[in-house]
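During the reporting period the student researcher (J.K.) took over the structure-prediction task from the postdoctoral fellow and processed the backlog of single-chain submissions. One of the processed entries is reproduced below for the supervisory committee.
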Amino acid sequence: MAGRKKEIDRENGASFIVDIKRNEYSSWQGTVTWIESNETVSFRSAMELIRLMDSVVEKDRDLEAGHRLALGSQA
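J.K. obtained the following structure tokens:
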């Protein structure tokens, strides 16, 4: 499993490249790259990976909601 990469594409535009470098102690260690910002962060477990990805998706949702409210107030 070492070095295996998987690209995940979400409907809201948050795209990731996950690079699993090691599988130790029944968990994954590696890096996740956000395609849109070209930011790479290391993770030490599958749970940490999920939390990192969720935080980006949630931030995108908040930005979209704010943008929709701003457009609605201008109309």
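The committee noted the following: The first strand starts at residue 4 and ends at 9.
J.K. will present the remaining backlog at the next meeting.
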